[in-house]
Design goal:
With about 270 residues, the chain is α/β, with parallel strands linked by helices. The chain contains twelve helices and five strands.
């Protein structure tokens, strides 16, 4: 980071996941995700967001959750899909700052009582399950059960499932069909097009504090061709290019530099 800061004057390292939510690139797909999740939130229902690895599903959800009033909404983010039913209930309760009861038979009544108490207070829960395509079948059933509970009309819960495209196909069939029918929102997040890829690169440099054009138009076009607009791959390529540029104190990086970076990443010597 020091060498990059010395050469390019960055305030912080660009093309990382640590970028603040308010500084995220406003991609069309991400705006669409946020608009659709607003609908799901208003309905206290369920949403399914799919996308290829690295397209920014989690990033879009982070921006959406950050936009919510923390005095009204509590976000529960489950990053480990390989949970047991007991650990699922416990993690939800802990995120709601409730000490879980001992023993599985006590957890569900406790969770119901907590949900009912929140509903009476006008508070709501956004439950995000990442990598949901890896969930075991019994957890899908439990999530459906939480949505189908007897307090259905007053439920404070909105469920968001994030996963790869095969998750949507999986949910169409038994024993998951009942949960699929509860989905008020379904959206597939696609990679950036060329215009968005170029805009994404410029945005990250600007947010990091760089003034001017560090990458040529041809460089951005080549990045898009190689990454197919997948944000994570764009980040990896651009970080590697910055290291090359800083080492050689380049004022602008072009297609030739990109080719060198690609060769280096492939383990070959240019």
């Amino acid at each position: 980071m020091n060498v990059l800061n010395d050469v390019y004057g960055f305030r912080h390292l660009p093309f990382t996941k640590s970028i603040a939510s308010q500084d995220l690139f406003p991609a069309r797909g991400h705006r669409e995700v946020q608009g659709r999740l607003t609908v799901a939130l208003q309905m206290h229902s369920a949403a399914l967001i799919t996308g290829d690895v690295g397209t920014g599903k989690s990033t879009a959800l982070r921006a959406f959750a950050h936009s919510l009033d923390p005095n009204v909404y509590t976000t529960v983010y489950l990053a480990n899909p390989l949970l047991t039913v007991t650990s699922l209930y416990r993690q939800i309760l802990l995120a709601l700052q409730v000490e879980p009861a001992f023993g599985f038979m006590r957890l569900l009544p406790q969770l119901r009582a907590t949900f009912q108490d929140l509903a009476r207070k006008g508070r709501y829960i956004l439950l995000i399950v990442d990598e949901a395509h890896l969930l075991p079948p019994d957890l899908f059933d439990q999530l459906r059960f939480l949505l189908n509970d007897e307090m259905d009309s007053a439920s404070p819960l909105t469920l968001v499932l994030l996963g790869q495209l095969d998750l949507a196909q999986k949910l169409r069939f038994a024993p998951y069909e009942a949960l699929y029918q509860r989905l008020a929102v379904r959206y597939h997040l696609r990679p950036f097009d060329l215009e968005e890829t170029a805009g994404y690169i410029k945005h990250h440099l600007r947010v990091a504090g760089y003034q001017g054009q560090l990458f040529s138009d041809g460089f951005a076009s080549g990045v898009h061709d190689h990454t197919k607009g997948v944000a994570r791959k764009i980040n990896n390529l651009c970080r590697s290019a910055l290291l090359l540029g800083a080492t050689e104190k380049k004022e602008i990086l072009d297609e030739t530099d990109l080719k060198r970076v690609l060769l280096d990443l492939e383990g070959r010597i240019s």
